[in-house]
Predict the 3D structure of the following.
Amino acid sequence: MDLLNTLVEKGLRRELPSREEALAVLATSDDDLLDVVAAAGKVRRQWFGRRVKLNYLVNLKSGLCPEDCSYCSQRLGSKAEILKYTWLKPDEASRAAAAGVAGGAKRVCLVASGRGPTDRDVDRVSRTIGAIKEQNADVEVCACLGLLSEGQAERLKAAGADAYNHNLNTSEATYGGITTTHTYADRVETVRHAQGAGLSACSGLIAGMGESDADLVDVVFGLRELDPDSVPVNFLIPFEGTPLADEWNLTPQRALRILAMVRFVCPDVEVRLAGGREVHLRTMQPLALHLVNSIFLGDYLTSEGQEGKADLDMIADAGFEVEGTDTTTLPGHRVGGCDSPCGDAPADGGEPAGADAASARTDLVTVRRRGAGTDLAPNA
């Protein structure tokens, strides 16, 4: 297929594909799926070999968020029966992080619900970072605390944070239909605050919220323009009790096409398979490892993932290896910033997503009842 040959050549040169090419990846048929995966896999292996980076989430504060993000089980007005608790103490968070590190995680992601941290919250998280680094000096720590105010990113950096996560989630054009309590521009500003402070930026998307192919391409091109080091790709977990509970729009095949499109647009970036992989990829998760070079280990913020040992077995059985703490994740040319030309994006095109409808699999959505905020051992 000429399209795939062109995309491989561009990916190996770190050249941005056109919007039409990105849309064409999403429009490929299921008959062409293995060809698409194989092509994107060549780009993935060029820059990351067969390494898989493991990341581990610690939910520092669960639920009771004043924001109205429609996809989130912790949102204002959510009726999802999730765990709700206030801030973990630094030693509690450090113990939770240690479970992930023992399971092979190279990065610990500290997440707290809310619009953004107060200065007191930044102090609290700074103490938590110190406690984690004291026990595991080599582990990377990424903070995800919402919108940042002036100077807060610098304080987190000084405390030992390595990265900051703040996802764009969806396209600027559709953002107001998903969230009304803050804007797409607010999110972009926070990512730039993090980059300006010298933190490694982590910013990604959520697919499966009813968006069109053009929306997906828009948000991925927006991410490419921001140039984060890591792009997590989440697939909507339709929690009962949230506005998007009935959005079951993804098949495993469509999820793989989305991941392939992200890899072609962001060839040399850490692409992370994040929330919802078990729900939507199901038995096709191993194929996704040919597209991404990073996954979350174990459970997520408010939902349970597959067992940590199953994740490790899947990686080994698929012929990949867990990335060690002594290995630099990003290719050498990206350390200290990417010098890849992005080119000019042609005018928008693309029609709304087609009838890739999937049956609701509510049996696969399991609310987290173990780990942080409970007396039960975490999954790692």
About this structure: Residues 337-356 have pLDDT under 50 and may be disordered. The chain has 13 helices and ten strands. The two ends are 41 Å apart (CA to CA).
